[in-house]
Amino acid sequence: MIWVIAGTLDGRKLAMKLADEGFGPVLVSVVSHYGAQLSEHKGIEVYTGRLDKMAMVDMIREKEISLLVDASHPYAAIVTQTASEAAQAVGIPFIRFERPEVALPAYDKLYHTANEEEAAALAGQVGYRIFLTTGSKTMAVFAKAKALQDKDVWTRVLPTKAVLEIMEELGVSPKYIIAMQGPFSYALNRAMFSEKQVDTIVMKNSGLVGGSDTKLQAAMDLGLHIILIDRPKVEVKGLVVTETDTVIEEVKKVF
Prior knowledge:
It contains ten helices and twelve strands. The chain has two domains: about 1-100 and about 235-255, NAD(P)-binding Rossmann-like Domain (Rossmann fold, 3-Layer(aba) Sandwich), CATH 3.40.50.720; about 110-230, Vaccinia Virus protein VP39 (Rossmann fold), CATH 3.40.50.150. Helices cover about 40% and strands about 20% of the residues. By secondary structure, the chain is α/β, with parallel strands linked by helices. α3 (about 55-60) crosses α4 and α8 packs across α9. The strands form two sheets. Strands 3-2-1-4-5-12 form a six-stranded parallel beta sheet, sandwiched between helices. The longest helix has 14 residues, at about 75-90.
């Protein structure tokens, strides 16, 4: 059995392709019930919930997993590290499937930061009306950042009950929440940035699937400050690939 950790749209598509190609049943693990709904497909068994290393090891043994493909979000460093270690502990092949980054243009208002804490601090220095496109998982960092307490900060998140409950618990006013499903086009990004009259956006380089290119272009055309949170560096014991076809070829070597 193949296990795909599918924290992304392209990860779910990969799992479906593996199932359609006839490699046997495919186990797909996701964190949310919404992700589980999106993963439903013939030949796919879905597990919903977070797993630590020991739970992953148990899953590999229980389901008799022969190959683990980590297609979690490019910024989910802990998931990738944990999955790599679990596969190594049991002695099965591990493949990290990660969408490529978007090439960054030359732009004098583009700033690099290593994490959300740095991004929040810098946003408070250069901006007054700030637009977060980093999602809900790290929203606590921005909601509690001293540098942003006297700023207008909008955040774009998924329109699910669980996410909106997180926002409410953090004390984020509905006035500053944009609950929409992405990815977003250039025109829609530009319209949102313009309508809110923001001067700064905070983003991740999540790749084309994540809409990084349209966010960058819209922000640059409006002359906004762009604070980019760089991808975390994770060393894994296994193959790292960026193309679906490469994963398929590697799977053929195992099955």
